[in-house]
Write a structure and sequence with these properties.
alpha/beta; two-stranded antiparallel sheet; 7 helices; PIN-like_dom_sf; magnesium; toxin activity
Amino acid sequence: MPWRASSSTNGPRRGAESVRPITMNFLVDTSVLTRMRVEPVQTALRELSVAGRLGRCAMTDLELGFSARNGHEWDTIVRALAAFTRVEVAARDFRRAEQVQRSLADAGLKGRKVPDLISAAVAERRGWELVHYDHDFEHITGATGQPHRWIVAAGSID
């Protein structure tokens, strides 16, 4: 686990430094949450949760709720999502998504899903690492330069 130095009033003598863990934040995409029943994904999520906080974009709630066949199923989805910190979408996230969409269009990479662009913009604004299982994020993060990772190796579970 990474560590950084910090001063401490309750710790060692004056002038000495103590260390505290750096908390990592991970924004988990819909592409991961729809695969939560897959054992390697569960293992990877557990490992990430030890390293820091797991969140999901508010847009993800709508994406997952879309698949509910009835009210009971929708409620079940919402309860499962409560395990992840909800990160709201800000107006500037839409503007950033538009900028990235334009940049991708310039590169001939049209067709990136709007929810993916929004989730990436939210993660970028918050400084959270984007966790996914979707090739689209390779293109999006290539344009933004933001940190991202595959939850498990591409192609390993589908």
